[in-house]
Specification:
Elements (H helix, E strand, L loop, with lengths): L1 H31 L8 E4 L4 E4 L4 E3 L2 E3 L5 E6 L2 E2 L8 E3 L5 E3 L13 E9 L3 E4 L3 E6 L11 E4 L4 E3 L11 E5 L2 E2 L6 E3 L5 E3 L8 E9 L2 E4 L3 E6 L6 E7 L4 E4 L4 E3 L2 E5 L3 E6 L2 E2 L7 E4 L3 E4 L8 E8 L4 E18 L4 E4 L4 E3 L2 E5 L3 E6 L2 E2 L6 E4 L3 E4 L8 E9 L2 E12 L17 E8 L4 E6 L10 E8 L6 E4 L7 E4 L7 E10 L2 E5 L3 E4 L14 E6 L2 E5 L12 E8 L6 E5 L3 E4 L7 E10 L2 E2 L6 E4 L10 E7 L5 E6 L12 E8 L6 E6 L4 E4 L7 E10 L2 E5 L3 E4 L14 E8 L4 E8 L8 E8 L5 E6 L4 E4 L7 E9 L8 E6 L9 H4 L1 H4 L16 E7 L5 E6 L14 E8 L8 E5 L3 E4 L7 E10 L2 E2 ...
Parallel strand pairs: 2-11, 12-20, 22-30, 31-39
Antiparallel strand pairs: 1-4, 3-8, 5-6, 5-9, 7-8, 9-10, 9-11, 13-17, 14-15, 14-18, 16-17, 18-19, 18-20, 21-24, 23-28, 25-26, 25-29, 27-28, 29-30, 30-33, 32-37, 34-35, 34-38, 36-37, 38-39, 40-41, 41-44, 42-43, 42-45, 45-46, 45-47, 48-49, 49-52, 50-51, 50-53, 53-54, 53-55, 56-57, 57-60, 58-59, ...
Helix pairs in contact: 4-7, 4-10, 6-9
Amino acid sequence: MAELGAELLLSLICLTFLRPLTMAVHTDKEESAVPQFVPFGFSVEPEDALVVRGGPALLNCLVASPEAFRVEWKKDGSYLTLQADERRRLLDNGSLLISSVVHSKHNKPDEGVYQCTASIQNLGTISSKTARLSVAGVPRFSSQPEAGLVRHGDSHVFLCDIIQDLVGFSRWELNKQPLALDHRLLQLPSGALVVSNASDADAGSYRCVVETGGVVKSSDEVELKVIAETGESRKLEYLTTPSAITSVVGESVLLPCVVTGSPAPYVRWMLNDQLIDESDGHFEMLAGGSLRIVNLTVEDSGTFSCLADNMNDSLEAKAELNIQVPPQFLKKPVNTYAHESMDIIFECEVTGSPAPTVRWVKNGDTVIPSDYFKIIEEHNLQVLGLVKTDEGYYQCMAENDAGNVQASAQLIILKHGSGGAGAVGPTPSAPRDVVASLVSTRFIKLTWRQPAETHGDDVTYSVYYSLEGTNRERIVNTSQPGEMQVTIQNLVPESKYTFRVVAHNGNGVGESSSAVTVATQPEVQVPGPAPNLQATATSPTSIAVSWETPVTGNGEIQNYKIIYTAKGQDGEQEIDVRGLTYTFTGLKKFTEYSFRIVAYNKHGPGVSTDDVTAQTFSAVPSAPPQNVTVEILNSKSMMVRWQPPPADEQNGEITSYKIRYRKGARKSEASDIVPGTQLHTLLDNLQRGTEYSVRVTAMTLNGSGPASDWITSETFESDLDESRVPDIPSSLHVRPLVNSIVVSWTPPENQDIVVRGYIIGYGIGSPHAQFIKVDYKQRYYSIENLEPSSHYVISLKAFNNVGEGIPVYESAITRPQSDPIDPDVDLYELFHAPYTPVPETTPMLPPVGVQASVLSHDTIKVTWADNSLPKNQKITDARYYTVRWKTNIPANTKFKVANTTTLTHMVTGLKPNTLYEFSVMVTKGRRSSTWSMTAHGTTFETIPSSSPKDVTVVSKEGRPRTIIVNWQPPSEANGKITGYIIYYSTDVNAEVHNWVIDPILGNRLTHQIQDLTLDTTYYFKLQARNSKGMGPMSEAVQFRTPKAESSDKMPNDQASSIPKPNGRPSGNVDNAVGITANENYILIIVIVVLVGAFIIISVVVGAFLCTRRTTSQQKKKRAACKSTNGSHKYKVNSKDLKPPDLWIHHERLELKPMDKSPDPNPVMTDTPIPRTSQDITPVDSTLDSSVHKRRDSGHESEESMSTLAGRRGMRPKIMMPFDTQPPQPVISAHPIHSLDNHYHHHYHLGSLASPSPSHGHLHHQNSPRSIVTPMSHLDSADSTESVSRNVPSSDMMSTSSTQHVYSVEPSETEISYLSSGTGEEDTNTYPPTAHVRPTHPLKSFAVPTITPHNPSFESPALPSTPLLAQTGGPHSSKTASIGTLGRVRAPMVVNVPSAPDAQETARMLEDSEPSYKADVLTEEMAHLEGLMKDLNAITTT
């Protein structure tokens, strides 16, 4: 029992836990089930029908669906109530039956447009295509047939004048018996009867009978008599002719053509000037002349011509056949699943002729475009912000004159999360701090922070927004995971929107943020674009334009402005209209026009529509071919050449040209037809010595245009002889130049022998090295690429098809390279082009006064005069002119030529903003002139026709928020580029007016854009502009900014505190930052300690050296101080010349000139410096201290340098210590004597001063990195202390494996002299910079003292004014530190004035005696080296 109780208890527990689990599984399955699409459509749809009054009518409708459905009918858009209707009944299969059609003059209840609809409960409704039910009218004859008389074998036509609807109910009777129709007897579409090839059996009484709904109506009976043919000639005459007709693809059509006359005419048909072939069965000739076309195709559309002729006469009748194509779907809408708030698009693409109109229907009701239902891309339906009520069936219905079709698709709205089991796990919390960071009239940019709990890494976001007062909520998703900003476009101005953000992770949709309401900015309430703008050609000169009222009119529309332009024209034309249609007349034939509409209300013009284009119909050309010329080739042939009619008068595509020619003034003429692409033809088999007249006609599909004027020319009496080779040329002349020889010649004296061309041979010492063949018309040639001062032998011989003639020889020596220019020879080519026709015994004079008049960006008009014509310049003979032109870019461009018979020629198709040269020659028979003088013309500019190319975007190093855009100019600039416009946006599909615009002036090819958002994809487009306007935009270039700020970014470019995206700090990052900061603090403390220690050591060493000086030196120093502060003069004592502190004396210092660098402008340096004396800039003594007013002359320096060097004889060397850095360019500085006797040493951080020996003054330049520290005048002790304090720090004193030398021009003495700087300067004025090579850190790190000036010696080389404007006395100076510890230092500045002359220099050198003893100095330096080693050891640890 215990075991049984335990089993029952266990079973109960299992059932208790398993039941809820099982129910949950079933519930999940039910919720996750996706609704399936229900097949729903029409298997049979109603068709157009013509019925008779009182008769029945049946409109079929069969629906196919597995679900139960209900069928209803609409008439003229309204539902029919069929329950109580006795005449109209709904059949079981859904068809509509009208048992008795009612139709009268004032009551037509059954005639109209019918449509079948089918509905499935809770799913939706679909509608069939429409069908028109027409009721035939009452039989009535407008006129009666007439009796006739016909001869045997001839034709006759009886008319049956009834309305067109009744033709299908009519028949003919002969002698009151139904007439059997056959190939002789034919009833025409109008109801008329044709009796062809009449015989006696056709005689009798004829009548037309119409029977509708049991009502029979007959015409009067008329008699037809058949008589015998007499054989006499009768004029051809049409009994009936074809007329314009419109039919539909797939149907059959009959084109009537009945001709009478004697002899019996032969009838044939042509389609678009092509003879119709009846063998394939598509075309059939009936009743002697009428044409039946079976199963019409689009290719059958065109002009049909009925041609009838006999031996005496001919007739032609034409008619247009227009073929219409019912609408056909290229792309149908498809069934779609979607979620609420999404945007969807139903696609629908149709074709047909005429172009179908498309409308959308939802559940049987027409969709009216609104803010949420939009027609885009011509026919597609876009539904924005889906809601549950949007479910149902959507239909695309297309209609034109030939028919209508429909296609349907079902939309199912899914619940979020349906369609899959879904992952199990926590979803993100609500995004935080949703704000509108940018608000405009039509877009808002939202940003937010990451949710506090993301529960995953790949977090995406959806932004839901809705317009206030609507229940539709739309959705916009971020483009990639982690992105926390989005721009919502296409909003309504001055409207309130509500936004909320939802995060998604791998587990599903998270919580929604709190709603944020934002109002867009107001905008002027102008109308929106007019929808459904269409333009349709109605004739060769007219186009009809129609549109609809703007959806957003913002008030009453006052008028519309139509802006239109013809293709190829620059300017637009405007016209104001008030309606919704307008027909343009008087347009150019076969020309494409573009149209756009702007609606106006009381606030002004609205948004323009996009352009639509339409092309007028083609027509026959309205002008004849141009420049028809005739060239006689021999006694039996001539070549006819021409140019097409002007482009604006061709009125269509030229399909062919017809050439008519005749002998003399005879009326009979022959003709030849060539394709439209051929612009010449050869007329042969002509008679010798006969005058022929020729004219040309252009033809399009519509027919022939006007013919050109008759051109008369006479064939030769006899042909030239080609049974033997040509004679020797009568003369040969050469003109040698430096690298070329111009060869000219005259043809053989016997011109009865054919000459096909000439062969020029040439070579050094032999004419057989190279050969050139030229045309028989050529008389000049320039042999190029020859060697100067070389002896060339030239040969010339004529040739024909038999062989080569006897050559004539000439020699010439090319001119030497240095030979002066001979204008008579060098200008030869300018006035004699290398290709010049034959100058005969009586040569043709070349045209004169050639002018090139620029008309547009691609057209130049060339005009000239002909001196061989009478004064009135009237052409009466068969001469013609050849115009040639070319541009010199590229250099190898070939000439283009055109012939004309007038004194003017319009050259078209040129490139914009391009220089062209033109020349003209005249030809008459076998005689031609030389080319005329050239005329030049530059075409006008036009807007760029291509976009900037090679657009690249790169991030600026160290500045992740800044990018650099680079590009190249457009390939077809069509003028001087005056600027560019950069467009950039985060949405590549945004409207152009929503892109940020950054204009750029000039022709710069790079631009920086700053303050971009990190980790954001931007799209960039460029547009070039010139004086004529803007060119096309380039393709969008994508670039994504970096994800984070770079670590080396400037402090002012980065935030002080940037929280992590999830709002939680990262301990690892903080620790890393803290470690880095601590290391930086320790490094700074070490550097400060080292700098302090070094300064103390320098002060101690300086003080020690100062105490070593003698009393006499101190006295002299005090005297010098007094002299410096006063204006009195004193003499220089030999004891005053002292070596500098800590100066290391080197033995055997030699005067060696500095090597000049081969590159005067070294690269890869912060500041380029002069390498040669030519680069050192002199400064005039009259200039003030303003640096901006000083400019170098650049040419006097070298002379001044050489003069100064001559005065000196030898130069001392200066050795200066600096930081260990890469070798830099070397600068030479000339040693001079100072005007001061103090030991002041002048340094400027960043650069080395360049001396100005020309005027004895310093030349300063601006240096943005220079730091000038003005200091007061110091005594010698202070000067020494200053030098000691400025000794380089331990890091630069450390011994390096690479020893660098800073050298200034050497001299034989051991002392270098430096001048004083100015006492005070403008803080913006900096000396020029120069780089010098560093030496060993323990060698020569101090600057030597300056030898005092001898006041009693008046040097003519020195100016009487101070070197620079000074405030602390005439010899005030300044000092500056060499550098600071731990910082990479720019090169040092040395200010060097001019040197005294040679005599003063010699006296100074004689008086100078170093007072330092070698052992004391050696001991001091050894002590200093020990200190430096200690400092190096401290720095290393």
